[in-house]
Amino acid sequence: MIVYDKMDGKEDGAVAYCLEQLRREDRDRYLTLLFAPRGHRPVLAAMYAFNLECARAVAAGGEQPLLGQMRLQWWRDALADGGAHPVLSVLSGRPHLFLRLQALLSARERDLTDPPFANLADLVSHAAATGGGLAAIAAEELAVELAVETTEAARAAGTAYALVGMLRAIPYQVPGRTFQGRLCLPEDSLAGHGLSADDVWTGGKRDAVAACVRQVAEAAELELVKLSGVRAAGSAISPLLHGSLARAYLRRLAKAGYDPFAPDLGLQPVYRPLLLLWRTLLGRP
Fold first, then answer.
1. How far apart (Å, rounded) are the C-alpha atoms in residues 168 and 162?
2. Dihedral sign (CA 11, 16, 21, 23)
3. Per-residue pLDDT for 201 more than 60?
4. Degrees to nearest 5, angle at CA 236 with 126 and 272
5. Do residues 161 and 139 make contact, with C-beta atoms less than 8 angstroms apart?
6. In which element (H, E) is residue 271 found?
7. What is the C-alpha to C-alpha distance for residues 254 and 235, in angstroms, rounded to an integer?
8. Residues of 227-245 as b/e, b for ≥16 C-beta within 10 angstroms?
9. pLDDT in tens, 19-40
10. What is the pLDDT of residue 278?
11. Pair 103, 133: CB distance under 8 Å
12. Strand intervals (E) in the chain
């Protein structure tokens, strides 16, 4: 467990809440924040916990979209008016972050209100607004003096991570109890391979599905190309580590023949922190 210095009981409890949520449901981001300077970890934990709350709201809207929208609206009102919640307690006094998180919330709401992705560009744009936006906000919070290039590299890393996450979530993108957002395979790609959304989830035409998945994976790899030559140290490395995780997941996906239903697409629990430590020591995400 991370120990924070010079915190009163209320704030320490709020931070502990955020950390516990991330440990249980967003282990990847929990691990990346461990490589941020100690003083910045509470804010990063709260930001990532807020993102997790948005994801929970989307999941709640799988069977009843209105329920998901109501939960997102609660967070929208809470950001505007200062609602009572541990996440908001940690973030209090940072109005600039509240504005940025409002944009992130709006992007997540589109999973409940917008039609399926028409093409790959629409999908990448959504990933950039969600995972990419979150990583960019984290980079800005860690060091406001960072060069624009570093912030944009963080955005690219987060975008790639979001794209890979959507691919790994395909089995859960069918509306229902375990809903995790819109099907990430664009409609024009599905149509070009003679597929419908139902074909994806029923397990038929696996080769055609894999071909569509590979197109999205290649878009994620293009985002990672933007990290080539980027070297970061200290506070800059933490959000860029999303790219390291995305690259590792892409390797697993490629090894599985781009089958989103393969049973071994995850990373071993021991491997992830070792990977992040190694990339941090190299200063290269």
1. 10
2. positive
3. yes
4. 75
5. no
6. helix 271-282
7. 32
8. beebebeebbbbbbbbbbb
9. 999 999 999 999 999 999 888 9
10. 93
11. yes
12. none
Find the length of the chain. 285
Phi and psi of 204, rounded to 5°? -85, 160
Would you list the DSSP string of 224-237? HHTTTT----GGGH
CB 170 within 8 A of CB 190: no
Burial category of 221 from C-beta neighbours within 10 Å (exposed 0-12, middle 13-18, buried 19 and up): middle
Q: Residue 103 — pLDDT band, cuts 50, 70, 90?
A: very high
Per-residue pLDDT band at 233 (split at 50, 70, 90): low
- Give the type of residue at 109: E
- On the question of pLDDT at 219 being above 90, the answer is yes
Q: Are 109 and 126 in contact (CB under 8 A)?
A: no
Q: Look at residues 130, 40, 52 and name the one whose alpha carbon lies nearest to residue 85.
A: 52
List the structure tokens of 24. 């249980």
The CATH fold of domain 9-282: Farnesyl Diphosphate Synthase (1.10.600)
Tokens describing residue 65:
């979209």
45 CA to centre of own chain: 13
Q: Name the residue among 136, 145, 83, 72 with its Cα closest to residue 109.
A: 72
Amino acid at the residue 41: R
